[in-house]
Amino acid sequence: MTTAVTYQPVGATRPADPHWQEHPSGFRWFAKSVAIGHGDEFWENVSEDLLRWGVKRRSGFRVSPCSSAADRVAEGAEYRISVGLGPVSLHEPVRVVEVVDLPDRRGFAYGTLPGHPVSGEEAFIVHRGPNGTVHLTLRSLTRPAPAGVWRPAFPVLLLAQRFYRRRYLQVLVD
């Protein structure tokens, strides 16, 4: 039996949609795009890296596939993301809820599973414009975890989230 994600609606960050305009109530939402490079070779390298968790790994996270999940993101696959924050190690069980693999848009969204410090969804998308400029877009919906030891620490987790978003927006730059 598959464990349910800790939030609804699943797929709300809509990584395939270039214009994210609907944000479910009850979540803090975030969206930002930055230019990270240019050209076909850069596009091929960065988009494949993204689909292999490059943005998370280059930001200091460890990503471990659960059971038969592959290293490359796959819809429905579950992963354990870990990071050390000083003396504390944070573990984030997640499920990939959507994968986009189009000629000029690639990315994925994952949703939180029980035990994750927060509840919600995060999407990482790279997209290429007609002039060859490649952008990275981050989208997230976040609220406190429904239960657990991390729930009272939600304000501190939001600070950590801001720190890592800045890293995400920098680590793939050409």
From TrEMBL:
It holds the Pfam family DUF1990. InterPro entries: DUF1990, UCP010260. Residues 6-170 form the DUF1990 domain. PANTHER family: UPF0548 PROTEIN. This is Uncharacterized protein conserved in bacteria. The lineage of its organism: Bacteria, Bacillati, Actinomycetota, Actinomycetes, Mycobacteriales.
